Amino acid sequence: MNPSTAPKIAARQAKQAGFTLIELLIVMVIIGLLAALVGPRLFGHLGKSEVKAAKAQIEMLGTALDGFRLDLGRYPTTDEGLKLLWAKPENPDIATTWHGPYLKKAVEKDPWGNPYVYKSPGEHGDYDLSSLGKDGKEGGEDENADIHNWE
User: Which of 10, 55, 87, 122 makes a 20 to 30 Å CA pair with 79?
Assistant: First the structure.
């Protein structure tokens, strides 16, 4: 090989290095197909984890409500709401026996961003605590199903 042609060959090979448009399109189609196959499975697991998180939060709120009852001898009324579990009450009669906060931080909304439904006295026990699921409406199935403390 002639030493003067070596740089020309290297320059030609450098220009030819890279991918053609067809090769890039094929790779993009393959990635799209993989995303279409794997994506729905991942989102299905996400929905299940939100349901599990809501159940865990309802259980945690129930434990905090029981701590409140031990200190004050009653559960917060529907009007007082769950706020008394993390915020000191303004009412001086309650504030003297309130030994909270019963939760480290506020848990006002379920994993879907809807407020928890709290009633005391409840229809199913001393209190009823519910998440209305992903759709935020009563009833539903799967992710839209209501989650209650009495079930």
Answer: 55
Q: What is the 3-state secondary structure (H, E, C) of 61-100?
A: HHHHHHHHHHHHCCCCCCCCCHHHHCCCCCCHHHHCCCCC
Q: What is the pLDDT of residues 20-79, one digit of tens each?
A: 888 888 999 988 888 887 777 766 656 678 888 999 999 999 999 999 999 999 999 999
pTM for this model (two decimals): 0.67
- pLDDT above 70 covers a percentage of the chain that reads 84
List the alpha helices (DSSP H) in the chain. 6-16, 21-72, 92-95
Task: Note whether 103 and 85 are within 8 A (CB).
Answer: yes
Q: Which residue, 103, 111, 104, is CA-closest to 68?
A: 103
Q: Is the peptide bond before 101 cis (omega within 30 degrees of 0)?
A: yes
Contact of 75 with 65, CB cutoff 8 Å? yes
CB 130 within 8 A of CB 146: yes
Q: What's the Cα-to-Cα distance from 121 to each of 3, 52, 145, rounded to whole Å? A: 95, 26, 23
